[in-house]
Design a protein that fits this description.
The chain has about 300 residues and is α/β, with parallel strands linked by helices. Helix content is about 25%, strand content about 20%. The chain is built from 9 helices and 14 strands. It has a 6-stranded mixed beta sheet with strand order 10-9-8-11-13-12, with helices on both faces. A 5-stranded mixed beta sheet has the order 1-2-3-5-4, with no helix packed on it. It has a 3-stranded antiparallel beta sheet with strand order 7-6-14, with helices on one face. Strand 12 and strand 13 form a beta hairpin. Bound molecules: guanosine-5'-diphosphate, magnesium ion (MG) and zinc ion (ZN). Zinc ion binds next to helix 8.
Length: about 300
């Protein structure tokens, strides 16, 4: 459910949460991450001593990575075994870039985890920004993403709650977009601290490193992931990246150089053609370019 340094809260089958350590020798096969156990992991426990021990980590169905700050080649698993990935985004205060949203969607799509975008702070939108949100909702809905536009502070959030029922949902977004506000509205028992504006203008120095899972009812879980700046893509080749853009996946078979086309400058490329004729959004293609070329898109 959560980790505080070297301790882990583990929700056991009997409904009790145990504070545990990890058995010294535990190792995941081929592990490259800095943390061996992530929120959402299923584990086996040894409860015979004073302090519970995590003895085994069961195979993961999927995971989401936070990009390592130091680019050391190590990444940090934020959460594992999730059913749905939800990004909370704001057009202003703070502004969420489309690059960030698209990188999040790709990280989820790589495991075919269904995605949701919540555009928050509807109450602060100018008329132009309202049009922009409507356009973005149409764009993302067309590629299979479920979209909401809300003001978490004041709106009825029951539709959003329905979207969460019976699933484990990872909730992500920049610091200050209103994740905690939203979670508190969905379930007052969660009682997450809500930050001041000043908190997130400080470029995240206050942010917590760890994700935290909450149980809303028997089979409904949400994972709050404080202040993620950027998403780490799982190991993938340049060739496979367009498979994780659903609108590109549909077309890539029609490229002349089907197996090698990176959709950059190659002739008779169905994807470049689709960008030209408007079937693929420029913003999506730009996000694709920055990922495939390995540019730092933390802008
Ligand atoms: N105007 C407005 N402010 C909001 C809304 N939702 C959250 N906020 C404010 O945004 C700030 C950051 O919220 P918080 O929930 O801590 O964001 P988090 O960092 O994503 O968890 C706080 O001052 C909230 O009161 C909203 O729908 N409208
Ligand atoms: Mg928060
Ligand atoms: Zn192509």
């Amino acid at each position: 459910m959560r980790s505080t340094g070297s301790f882990y809260d583990v929700l056991a089958d009997n409904g009790v949460t145990y504070n545990c350590r990890v058995r010294g020798k535990i190792r995941l096969e081929g592990i490259k991450e800095t943390n061996p156990v992530a929120v959402g992991d299923e584990v086996t426990l040894d409860l015979e001593n004073d302090i519970g021990l995590i003895t085994e980590i069961l195979p993961r169905t999927n995971h989401m990575l936070r990009q390592s700050v130091k680019k050391s080649g190590h990444s940090h698993v934020l959460a594992a075994n999730i059913d749905q990935a939800m990004v909370v985004a704001t057009i202003a205060l703070p502004r969420t870039s489309l690059g960030f949203i698209d990188r999040f969607l790709v990280s989820a799509e790589a495991f075919r985890i269904p995605q949701v975008i919540v555009f928050n702070k509807r109450d602060l939108l100018s008329p132009e920004d309202t049009l922009l949100v409507n356009e973005l909702m149409a764009l993302y809905t067309s590629i299979g993403v479920t979209c909401f536009s809300i003001a978490a502070k004041q709106d009825d959030v029951s539709n959003l709650y329905q979207q969460l029922v019976n699933k484990t949902t990872l909730i992500a977004g920049h610091s200050g977009v209103g994740k905690s506000t939203l979670l508190n509205r969905i379930s007052p028992a969660i009682n997450q601290a809500v930050g001041d504006i000043s908190d997130f203008s400080e470029k995240g120095t206050h942010t917590t490193t760890f994700a935290e899972m909450f149980q809303l009812d028997g089979s409904t879980f949400v994972i709050d992931t404080p202040g993620v700046k950027e998403w780490g893509l799982m190991d993938m080749s340049q060739q496979e990246l367009s498979d994780y853009f659903p609108e590109m996946r549909e077309l890539r078979d029609q490229c002349k150089f089907t197996s090698s086309c990176l959709h950059l400058n190659e002739p008779k490329c169905a994807i470049q053609e689709a960008v030209k004729n408007g079937a693929i959004a420029h913003s999506r293609y730009n996000s694709y370019l920055s990922m495939v070329l390995g540019e730092d898109n933390r802008k």
